[in-house]
Amino acid sequence: MENWDDIRVFLAVARAESLSGAAPALKMDPATLSRRIARLEDRLGAALFLKSPQGYALTERGLRLQAHAARAEAALALVAETGEAERGLTGQIRIGAPDGCANFVLPQVCAAIQARNPGLELQILALPRVVNLSKREADMAITVSRPETGRLMVQKVTDYRLHLAQRRDAPVPESLAALGARAMVGYIPDMIFDRELDYLGDLGATAVPLASNSVSVQLQMLRHAGIGIVHDFALPFAPELTRVLTDQLSLTRAFWLVRHAADRRSERLNRFAAMLLAGLRAEVARLEAGRLTEGITRRDG
């Protein structure tokens, strides 16, 4: 195996598919990365990437090296974890999540876990799209649909509920049929990245006059005007809003925890995943009950 630092650079560029994409995580500039990749290719006597203005694509030799390097990376991680079971978790863990979960649930859960593990650095990656685990954008991800493809470990986190909500001082519509007279708040239809986020069909609508690709922005819109579908766990953060027509429209969705299959033997990530699952389940239940001010349940799971 080549110098591990060079292999680490190779893996980062392979996953990011560009020098500029890999540079921030490695804390190196693209020019330095280009020299490092060229040096590795010279030593191996083969091109590892097809380079173009669109980015860096792996050659057949590069694909073979990536497979070997990824296995070596996983083995090194296992060695680094030796003895960690008796200590608190350490190092960096990045979690990808849709912005509803990232804004209203994950911060409290991560804060509680980090308080019990001071050597742990937790990062929340909130994106209006599905996080790409194969490119190592994150160590694990929360999704709203169960992945059907890929070498992944998938665990159901919990169900969560959504209802129509509006300002408390606004007139309550008599029925779903009366919603046409109100300004609806929701997702931008062509930017819905997961079918489970498409709520308009449940309302018989095709578009909304107040739209955003962000759940947090939608909630802020509703604090000023309109009516829209809101996560029950977000409502404690907007006390001026109230649920309406709950007997006529009630939606249930689920969160899933998705991880790399290669991390199955990682005791460190398994321990963290157990804490995360327990914390998320407790926090969603607490918020759905409308309890914002209570301390989060602190369990290792």
From TrEMBL:
GO process annotations (BP): DNA-templated transcription
InterPro entries: LysR-type_TF_proteobact-type (IPR058163), LysR_HTH_N (IPR000847), LysR_subst-bd (IPR005119), WH-like_DNA-bd_sf (IPR036388), WH_DNA-bd_sf (IPR036390)
Molecular function as annotated in GO: DNA-binding transcription factor activity; sequence-specific DNA binding
Keywords: DNA-binding, Transcription, Transcription regulation
HTH lysR-type domain: residues covered: 1-59
Recorded family membership: Belongs to the LysR transcriptional regulatory family.
Entry protein name: DNA-binding transcriptional regulator, LysR family
Natural source organism: Limimaricola pyoseonensis
